[in-house]
Amino acid sequence: MFVRTRPEDTARVVVTSTEASRIESDYRILSGAREPDFRNIATESEVRAERERLRDSFVSKGYVEPSDVDVKWGLLNRKAIEHADDGNFGLSTSMH
Known about the structure:
There is one protein chain. The chain has helices spanning 17-32, 44-60, 68-85, 89-95, and strands spanning 2-5, 12-15. By secondary structure, the protein is mostly helical. It has a two-stranded antiparallel sheet. Helix 2 crosses helix 3 (68-85) and helix 3 (68-85) packs antiparallel against helix 4.
């Protein structure tokens, strides 16, 4: 019997040795994942504009200011929609 924390929901669970190995493997995959290089996706002005747009939206709803992850998520979604509107479904899919 082992106690591990699952990466998908951060719950502490009692598992077998096989399940413990799978959880450890999942963590190795997660820790090895790299974030995309946003210099090739958006300009600094686009990042600032998205941060301001999200800040206005978040604050008006009583939430804290957007994190860097919120801004990245917003940019990726906006770019995916722009590419789809232009008919470039390959780039749209890549953004997702």
